[in-house]
Amino acid sequence: MSGAENLLVTAHSEKKIHIWNLENILRGSFEPILVEDSPLKYETSSLCAFSNGKGFTLGSIEGRCGVVNCDF
Hints:
By secondary structure, the protein is mostly beta strands. It has one helix spanning about 20-25; strands spanning about 1-5, 5-10, 15-20, 35, 45-50, 55-60, 65-70. It has one domain (about 1-70). The strands form two sheets. The protein has a four-stranded antiparallel β-sheet. Strands 5-6-7 form a three-stranded antiparallel β-sheet, with no helix packed on it.
């Protein structure tokens, strides 16, 4: 799990990534705004949100990385 600004990102089993808008959680909506598959081939080992909250990076167990941009 990693977060910055209004972005919270969580990595789950089955290579699923949940993206949350923290403003929605403050309003009482606890559903993620997006659930998607990881862009990486193997299981996620690391996750870090950008400090400006506009995206995040993923690292896999094989050493590859992916960058995902978010606008909401």
